[in-house]
Each structure stands twice: as structure tokens, then as C-alpha cells.
Model the fold of this input.
Amino acid sequence: MVLSSPPPPINTPTYLRLRMQIREDIMTGQWPLGSHLTLRGLGAHYRVSNVPVREALLQLQGDGLVEMRMNLGATVTQVDEGWLRDFLAVREALEAMLVRNACERHKVEHLALLGRHQRTVAHAVQAQDWEAMFAAERLFTCQLYESGGNAHAHALLAPRNCLLEAFRRSHPPMAPVDPPRWAHRLLLMCEAISTSDADAAVQLVAQHLGALRLHLSRMLRAPQRLTGRSVR
Done:
């Protein structure tokens, strides 16, 4: 299952629309991790001038998705062991804050959506559909960020999570270790939020990210898919 972002409003500036499209295309493997992107190539691909391409790439550099080089275009950020270690440490700290916020806010509509996504994860685990499981887990995570109510944390985490998804999709599907526990942890997290048990929720976030860290580390040792291309 491939999840696409909703289209931006029609009055969104071209460079912001392009930023969102390139981010989506990095996540889906159109532009692989580590690939080289040029202003001319991107302009031709998306049928826009170099000016919005440059602005979009500068925005994406701020998001951590690309690295700009003087007169050389950009390179899509490569995900390696060090990147995973550092980002997941930051993600754990911010998600701990967000889940505490969610326990305090305790909004019924947020709990309902978290529960819906958790059930989708559980159904996918039963069907051994790992693509559907990770798609639902992403939705659960996005809803957790929304429930946490901190736009700055969301803005920092969301684009870098796109890199994680791009990394995961660059490898053949792999079953996680003990998949039923993934669904059960998310269920326990929903229950902790519903009872405002912040300490339990934070512990579950740490356990969940520990399982994700293990899964991605296993993928590091697996062969990559040959997808996507560079643009020149």
C-alpha cells in the first residue's frame, strides 16, 4: 500500500507545491537516496523554471531531505547507520514529549483515530501484509503527532520520517521481528493515552522505536532494490 499526501491548495506557490511533490517522489523511490538532482533535470521533469526548483531544494535542504552543493544541484540524503542512530534518538525524545501532550489533551476524536489505525495495523499483521502494516503504522504515527499538538516537533519529524520510509521501500519487504507485538504495543499506547498514563505511554514509545530501530538495522544488511534514477 502506497500512501500519498493530499494535494496542496490550488493557490499554493509553485515552489511549495514542488517541494511537496519532490518530497513525495523521494519517499516513493522516484529519486533514490543518495541520487544527484540538478536544477535543469528537475525543471524538465516537473515542467517548471529553475527558480521554483531552486527554492524548493532550499526548503528540502532545511527539511533534511537533500544536501545542496554550489553549482552542482543537490544530493538526496543517504540513510546509513549513523543517520538512523542519530535521528531515531531525536525522534524518541520528541515523541515522548508528544505522547505526554496527548495524554494531557485527551481528545476523544484523536483517540478514535489512533484506535482505528491500531486496528488496521493488527489486521495487516494477521494477514502478514507487511506493506499494509507499515502504512498503517505511519498513519498511527502521524495521528500521534497531531494529538501531541506541537507544530514545531511535527515539522521536524515528518520530512525525516519520509526518508525512513524511502529507506524502507528501497529494500524488499521484510517481516518485522514478532509482528503481533507491534500491534499490541500500539494498543497499549492507546489505552495509556486514554487513561492519561503518560509514563506508560512514554515507555511504549521507547519500546516501539526500539523495535523499529532493530527492523531498520536488519534492512541495512539486506540488498537494496534497484529503483529510481538521477536527473541531470
In short: The mean pLDDT is 91. The chain has two domains: 14-76, 81-220. The domain at 14-76 is CATH 1.10.10.10 (Arc Repressor Mutant, subunit A). Residues 110 and 122 are 18 Å apart (CA to CA).
